[in-house]
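Two proteins, back to back. First:
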Amino acid sequence: GAASPEEQAKAIYTGFLEGNGVQLDEEQAAMWWIPNFQGSELRYEYTLLDLSGDGVPELLVQLAEDSGGYNGVFHAEDGKLYCWNSDAAEMTCLDYPLDDGARLHLWRHP
């Protein structure tokens, strides 16, 4: 059968993190600075969390050693990737308090 929206989103996020051609929507790519997750000596950690409550998780990315140093939130919809936030300059990143463990999916990418 066809992949579920959640499975489609996970495939888009995996492709994006692995740098294999999955890109942001063109308008989005012009608006946001996004680090090269594969071409960096920095370590990033990743979490999937349904922030919008639609049953499809968003991808949250932060620097492993300094969560305030970079924070990004990405959303997959209709086979495309969108950036909701990518912050490495304003230093406004925060750790996310989680109070609904049922909607948290921890996911690390090597």
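And the second protein:
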Amino acid sequence: LDLHLVYRTRVTQRNRAGLCGVEECGPHPGYECSLCRGHFCDPHLADRMYPFPEGRVVVDRPASVCSHCWDRRKVWRRR
């Protein structure tokens, strides 16, 4: 959790400066991660099928997800 919070803080700082959430990238983030809500440029988000809870079932829906959130998806998923 601590690593994720540090990541979110840094993405927020970069976004406030008008930059993509990825450290090596520049300006003009135009897309939002469906999970962390950080803003990124197109190359740093991927459209993927992601499981979202809907009532008592889990439904796979398309979502734009940054690589940080995608790599940690098993940590956040309910069992």
